[in-house]
Design goal:
51% helix, 5-stranded antiparallel beta sheet, 21 helices, alpha+beta, 676 residues
Length: 676
């Protein structure tokens, strides 16, 4: 330094600090940034918030002596950094950077301080650093000791409220100024006191504070700590027991699990208007431990409920599996059994417990595993079900040959992840035997129909033709002629019965009654039927009445004559002797209406709903008489009319007789049309 600079008046250390206040602040910030290599700091540099005050205090202490140094300042620094998680090296390094910035600034300005001032500045800085580091270290040890004692409180795994009270008790034992402490948990939209120690313990337990009301409710709403200097007189304190106890200082802070509010904790003192930094730090540590325990307890409770629900679901599943008559199993991706019910385990001839964790090849008998394995692997590869896999082999349960149907399906989580494959196995042995019996019955039915259709009708035709020729012989006496008439009536009835049986077989076991539509005249068809029946029943009056001119339509002539023949014969059987059977035809816009009426006893009301069912008679059975009909005639009538998409109904009134009405659509109605 040149002689001119040496001869200038030298500033004091205090003057230098005051004159370079803002520059030192900027230098320190830059030094911190360079020390971190330009990266963001893990913790905010709390010293920057107190640096203006610290530089002013350093200036006063250098100028006026150590008594001017406010010790609370470095304690506040250390407490803030401890609360934020700084370690001791980070705390010391912040002060070291400040010392370096002061020396660099002096060197850059080329200034000499007054004799002894640099030493006094160094000593003052050393005193600040020593007090801050010592407080930091002592407080750290105190917190660690308290946390160790808190850990002891959890060794016997107490319930949450008991543990919270133990933690609060450790706090009171470590801080002489704390007279009461409590934890309030968030339940719905209110804070409820669940643990308390000290003054007013029994009185405050269970008290509620709505979120947003009072000092604690507002602090919970804003997620911030609160401090009340005189709780006994502050109207924001809503707990009357705390006011009656004459509390002064009241400090609280939110209990958080990340961003989620768990509740609030507070501590109060009856002797102090404010808590020391050490007490606040210790309270923060207790609150942090309480928050962790509350969150852990809630997590364990949810896990317990989930486990309990899962166990109940598994118990229900096991009960369902055991009770199911169907074999059920669940397997993983390696086709190892995860679950199997007793039905399927018995088919494998092994107990249920022996299947778990074992592969399909180990459990299923040789020969049966190949088709089921192919199906299971196809499900795993495609993620789609495979159905109707037939399995055949000896049945170890029944001791005979058996047939089973297996259906395989994917088993997924709710979000679609494939867990494995499920399989159901149904015993269809009886079903297969029933199918075989049904096929045998169908074959027999076909043979029977062939016999009825050809082998029986051919001789009947011969008998009927012979009777017809015999009836035309001129030398027959009255008795012989009546015998010939009986032969013709019997053969006609047998022919109708055979036709009805054939049609019934076709409608029930085949493809329905076949029809071949033609453009025909209904009057001509009906007149021909009545003429034929009149020959068979010459003693009865069969008449036809026609109303309307247009009686043409698209019908099967053979089926129309079959319907009228069945209705007229049914009327003859149930009419009074010598009463006429009247057939009426009426032409309407879209239909031709056929009515067949007789005079006789009415049909019982209980028979009307089932009159067109097969093997039903129009009269109740008489024990003294034989059944004269199979009861298929009206059923065949109904089937033929339905094929023509028409309708048939009956009216039977005492004194008026019985009338069957059939509506024949002239042309087939459109698909979906419902007849009236």
């Amino acid at each position: 330094m040149d002689e001119h600079a040496r001869s200038e008046p030298r500033p004091s250390a205090a003057e230098f600090l005051r004159a370079n206040h803002d520059a030192l602040l900027t230098d320190w910030q830059q030094a911190v940034f360079e020390h971190l290599g330009g990266e963001a700091q893990a913790h905010p540099p709390w010293l920057i918030d107190h640096l203006p005050e610290l530089l002013s205090t350093l200036a006063d202490a250098v100028e006026l002596g150590p008594a001017a140094m406010d010790e609370r300042l470095e304690v506040a620094h250390a407490a803030a950094r401890l609360d934020e998680g700084f370690n001791l090296g980070e705390v010391a390094h912040e002060y070291a950077l400040l010392r370096r910035c002061i020396l660099h600034r002096l060197e850059a300005q080329g200034q000499w301080l007054r004799p002894g001032d640099l030493t006094r500045l160094e000593v003052t800085l050393d005193r600040v650093v020593t007090r801050a580091v010592m407080f930091f270290w002592e407080m750290k040890q105190r917190i660690l000791q308290t946390l160790d004692r808190m850990s002891e409180a959890t060794l016997d795994d107490p319930d949450m409220e008991t543990l919270l009270e133990r933690l609060l008790t450790r706090l009171m034992e470590s801080t002489l100024t704390v007279d009461t402490a409590a934890v309030m948990l968030l339940e719905g939209d209110a804070l409820v006191v669940r643990a308390a120690v000290g003054l007013g313990t029994d009185e405050v337990k269970g008290l509620r504070v709505p979120v947003g009301q009072g000092v604690s409710g507002q602090a919970a709403l804003e997620r911030r700590p609160f401090f009340v200097r005189s709780a006994a007189t502050d109207p924001r304190v809503l707990f009357e027991p705390l006011r009656r106890a004459g509390l002064r200082a009241l400090y609280g802070l939110p209990l958080m699990d990340g961003e989620r509010l768990l509740g609030m904790a507070y501590m109060g003192s009856r002797t102090a208007f404010a808590f020391s930094e050490a007490d606040v730090l210790l309270f923060h540590a207790v609150a942090e431990r309480a928050s962790a325990h509350i969150a852990q307890t809630e997590l364990h409770a949810r896990e317990h409920e989930a486990r309990k629900e899962a166990e109940q679901s598994l118990a229900l599943l096991d009960s369902l599996l055991d009770a199911a008559p169907v074999g059920i199993a669940f397997l993983d991706h390696d086709l190892r059994y995860l679950r199997i019910n007793g039905t399927l385990a018995r088919l494998n001839s092994k107990p249920v417990e022996a299947h778990r964790g074992r592969t399909l090849h180990e459990m299923v008998r040789t020969g049966a595993e190949a088709p089921i394995e192919r199906a299971l692997r196809q499900v795993l590869e495609t993620g789609r079900p495979v159905q109707d896999v037939l399995l055949e082999g000896p049945d170890p349960v029944r001791g005979r040959a058996g047939v089973w149907r297996a259906d395989c399906f994917p088993v997924r989580t709710p979000d679609g992840v494939l867990l494995g494959v499920g399989c159901t196995v149904v015993d269809i042995t009886d079903h297969k035997r029933a199918e075989a019996a049904l096929r045998q019955a169908i074959d027999f039915r076909e043979e029977l129909i062939a016999v009825l259709g050809h082998d029986l009708r051919n001789p009947l035709h011969a008998v009927n033709a012979s009777a017809f020729m015999l009836g035309r012989a001129p030398d027959l006496d009255t008795g012989a002629r009546r015998s010939v008439d009986r032969i013709r009536k019997a053969t006609a009835r047998m022919t109708r019965m055979i036709n009805d049986i054939l049609d019934f077989a076709r409608s029930r076991l085949g493809g329905g009654i076949p029809v071949t539509r033609q453009h025909v005249n209904m009057e001509e068809l009906c007149q021909g039927v009545l003429d034929e029946l009149q020959v068979v029943y010459p003693e009865r009056s069969l008449s036809l009445e026609v109303r309307g001119d247009d009686l043409w339509g698209e019908w099967d002539p053979d089926r129309v004559t079959q319907v009228l023949g069945n209705l007229v014969v049914n009327a003859l059987q149930h009419a009074k002797n010598d009463t006429p059977i009247i057939t009426t035809l009426a032409g309407e816009a879209t239909d031709v209406v056929m009515r067949v009426r007789n005079e006789g006893d009415p049909i019982p009301a209980e028979l009307l709903p089932r009159l067109f069912d097969p093997f039903k008679s129009g009269h109740l059975p008489d024990p003294g008489t034989k059944q004269r009909s199979l009861g298929l005639g009206l059923y065949i009538v109904s089937e033929i009319v339905q094929v023509h998409q028409g309708s048939v109904r009956v009216e039977s009134v005492p004194g008026e007789g019985t009338t069957f009405t059939v509506r024949w659509p002239r042309v087939p109605p459109p698909r979906g049309y419902l007849p009236p």
